[in-house]
Design brief:
elongated; Nitrilase/N-carbamoyl-D-aminoacid amidohydrolase; Rossmann fold; homodimer; 563 residues; alpha/beta
Chain lengths: 563, 563
């Protein structure tokens, strides 16, 4: 790959003809060089057929995002370079703006740059590396990439383009900026006519709004239009929601691409500059979470080449919501559920679960767990040494259910879905290898109070989830008459405290100062911190909030802080 | 906390009296501010009683290392500042060099610095922030810290000290340096008399040797003595091995502190400068791994306030080695094992396991799994739809064992130890929630071929592990006549390929070019990559190699690279 690292002055700078720019918002798969390339080449052809001058893809779109430690393999980088060569070969008559890694040519510093390329007429015309490398929450970019030291613009068909990668436009207008540099500030002396940003910006329920704020701040500061091209699709637990956008110099959203799906849209630059439109999409928290989880499920299965799911249906609200989301994502023919009543299950739990399965048109099996439960009690009698019923026996029931579900999973190829919510996962209210089992946690980033909102959203056009599953007091049904409220505060109290601790990183005193009971706050934080070992061993959690359990939240298992 | 950020010119620069320097190599616990402070204050008192002028602790020793996302809590930083204040108050007549975080006073950049402080006579005399922030493998420092922009030295009792933090002395002499800056180069114009480095440098079997090389390179380059103070102890999966060292200007190792244990040692600076000693410790790979795992086990239990372990003993070499290490770490009274034969277990498996338990003097119970296995086959008969015996039934057996072990764990408070080796974990040869269960993976970073070496090491003064457990062909005993070699290549072939892929990050062609069979290589890499979902849900793995599964190896679950 030969790159001309210096920016390139076009011949037709004065020829200010209208330019047509296509944004290709695509769903990539990490490491699927062939598939990612094929998609991009199709979009190049379509953009050409629409007479676009330029087509813009996403950040690291040759490799998929986030490629994580695959970036440490020379072989992986070689494959990205091959994709870039093929894109270059396809750039006859059309400019291609695409993100791909670049090998750092000097020995000092990290081995790679995270770059945006401009390809045109079978040449690499320009490359700009990323400067601001997000290294927080789910991001690890400084693990792999060296920040750019130089910042330039490039002239293409008479227009001067400022090309940036994702985070590089996020350091303006913040009260507490994360970085000391602002790449667009460095490019402005070259007087760009427009900004193009290639992104891999992940979803959370607040992020689409935050993102438009950032875009508006950039346009207000630099006074030129902004073409923002995001990726979409789920990558294990991380959802990319698309929502690419075009902003006019007046700060209005000229267009916003759809959330959660692929799209190719073309824009006449002159029309964008003229402005006068405001086409922002609605952003309802529960709708976004609902749609994000469905995409998360679809892509987890689709990208792994899988189709079928299984889950345990208890008659409670968590497994009910999970079953609905799975059915909407995978189709009723691909979802089966298992009802596994014990001696402690209420009779209407089974009825509620059956009613839901029937509403959804999914297969259900009923496998009572009393026989294996009795067998284990018998063979364990001696080693239990006559100690009374406690959490051990509760866990045995949960683990028997986990074993049954995994057996069906293994025999028939249905992936087990985890049905735990974020409130439970936070305080460790769940059994490792039991109800915490599963290949993917569907609602593990949804607090219980939001699970109720999701259920209401699902039922808004008629009852899908039986009202009784929603109305009855939450219970694990692992001992006679058990209720969640026996060992946990009400979720209306618990969830706000968890939110302050997990999302807001408030310490105990700061939470108490918000008016919560001191003893309760300390007890809850202690539960969160002493149960990290369970979360360490659970499935990836589809991320829908700014701070989900998993890759974006890294706390020690062994420690003595608030524990 | 008031800090004088500029370096401090002492009054007695000309008074070149002999200086006595104490290195305190301590085992800290993340977040245990009280405990960490207490340890340090005791060492300050001991150093004072030995007439030391200066006592040197480790990196971030107020908080413990690595504090991970706890650093994002203002409350956590406040507690670190309180510890630093108390240390400052104890610095009457003795200089204290200690690592602690510092709040970044300007809004731009990350919120914190990773700093080394010099406290003396109840004042913060000097602070130098860390510049090179390791962000690779297990390290995430750029997630939290802003790099230092200024580099200065400080005069203390007539000597000019260059204080650095860990990685800051690691960027010299490398062919491919990770960073573009070298902090010591920036300090040299101030002509320091000696270097002091506070570290939290983790163990792997090659690292003690690498570390001394780095120290020697620094002394050779700068020509002054080096006092290197490392921490020791395990923090969940990461082992800090100590091995603090003092190097004379001639490049000889004047002293090396013990591996894997706490120590306080005092040195006359004049003697160190004189040199003429070489006191490097022996570094045998298997001995180091053995000792590291024992420390890892001790601290996992000790720091969580736990005592007792349980594990399944199969009669094979992996569980045998794990049982020995656990017994050596926790004492025979705290380790119990369970033998869980099935219809597929060979009779001498039980005999070998019994013999080992008797050799170790640990409690064993025998709980055959045929009853629950039959029960599950009965209740699952209908949903299995008459499909033949396959991996499902193998997994049912493994999960029954997992359930039994967890029941004993829950009832009696024994933490379940995982017995999988690195070769198995790499290729996914194990059952999720079955033999992959457990709170801590003891030998999950030890390839099978090294497990044999560990067994030989354990038996070197007489048979502890029955020879038959070592000599017989490895088998999971989950179907009649099963052997590992039915589905895996010999470990002598498998392990080097895994090493090239995992530790060396070689791509398939590079491994094939080393002379390995192409089909085999591609099959093995595919097994590694398609089994990431299992490793995602397993226990933390005690890290003994430069690339362990877990926090230091971050690859996507959903991807299509070599899969």
């Amino acid at each position: 790959m030969t790159v001309k690292p210096e920016y390139h002055e076009g011949q037709d700078r004065q020829n200010k003809l209208c330019m047509k720019i296509a944004i290709a918002q695509l769903n990539y798969l990490v490491g699927d060089f062939e598939g990612n390339l094929k998609k991009m080449l199709e979009m190049v052809a379509r953009a050409k057929s629409e007479q676009a001058d330029l087509v813009v893809f996403g950040e690291l779109s040759t490799t998929g995002y986030p490629p994580r430690d695959f970036l440490e393999f020379r072989d992986f980088i070689r494959l990205a370079d091959e994709s870039l060569e093929q894109l270059t070969a396809a750039s006859d008559g059309i400019g291609i703006v695409v993100g791909s890694p670049t090998v750092n040519p000097v020995p000092e510093g990290k081995d790679l740059y995270n770059s945006v390329y401009l390809l045109y007429n079978r040449e690499v015309v320009f490359v700009q590396h990323k400067t601001l490398l997000p290294t927080y929450d789910i991001f690890d970019e400084y693990r792999y990439f060296e920040p750019a030291q130089t910042h330039h613009t490039v002239v293409f068909k008479g227009k001067r383009l400022a090309l940036t990668v994702c985070e590089d436009i996020w350091n303006v207008g913040n009260e507490i900026p994360l970085y000391t540099v602002c790449p667009m500030d460095k490019m402005m002396p070259e007087h760009p006519d427009l900004m193009i940003n290639v992104s891999a910006s992940p979803f959370d329920y607040k992020h689409a709004a935050d993102r438009l704020d950032v875009l508006r701040t950039n346009v207000a500061r630099y006074g030129v239009p902004l073409f923002y091209s995001n990726i979409c699709g789920a990558q294990t637990e991380i959802i990319f929601d698309g929502g690419s956008a075009v902003l006019s110099p007046d700060g209005a959203v000229y267009d916003e691409l759809p959330y959660f799906e692929e799209a190719l849209r073309c824009y006449q630059l002159d029309d964008v500059i003229k402005g006068g439109y405001q086409r922002e999409q609605e952003k309802d928290k529960i709708t976004l979470i609902h749609d994000a989880i469905i995409l998360g499920l679809k892509d987890y299965f689709g990208k792994l080449g899988l189709k079928k799911a299984v889950l345990g249906l208890s008659g409670g609200i968590d497994s009910a919501v999970t079953a609905v989301l799975a059915t909407r994502a995978l189709g009723p023919e691909n979802v089966r559920v298992v009802l596994m009543p014990s001696a402690f299950s209420s009779s209407h739990s089974v009825d509620d679960a059956k009613a839901l399965a029937e509403n959804l048109g999914i297969r259900y099996d009923i496998i009572p767990i009393s026989a294996p439960y009795d067998t284990f009690n018998t063979i364990l009698k001696e080693v239990m040494e006559g100690k009374p019923f406690d959490v051990t026996e509760e866990n045995i029931q949960a683990r028997i259910r986990g074993l049954i579900l995994m057996a069906i999973s293994n025999k028939h190829g249905n992936i087990l879905l985890n049905t735990s919510n974020k409130s439970e996962m936070a305080v460790g209210y769940g059994t490792l290898y039991g109800d915490l089992a599963g290949g993917l946690s569907v609602i593990g980033d949804v607090y219980k109070t939001d699970v109720y909102r999701l259920a209401a959203f699902i039922n808004k056009n008629g009852e899908v989830i039986p009202e009784n599953s929603i109305a009855k007091p939450p219970s694990a049904e692992l001992r006679p008459g058990q209720k969640d409220s026996d060992s946990l505060p009400d979720y209306d109290v618990l969830d706000p405290i968890l939110h302050l601790y997990i999302e807001e990183r408030f310490g105990p005193q700061e939470i108490i100062d918000k008016g919560y009971d001191e003893k309760l706050v300390r007890r809850i934080l202690r539960m969160v911190n002493t149960n990290e070992f369970k979360r360490h061993q659970t499935a990836p959690v589809i991320r829908v909030t700014p701070k989900a359990f998993g890759v974006g939240r890294r706390v020690p298992i062994v420690g003595r802080y608030l524990s």
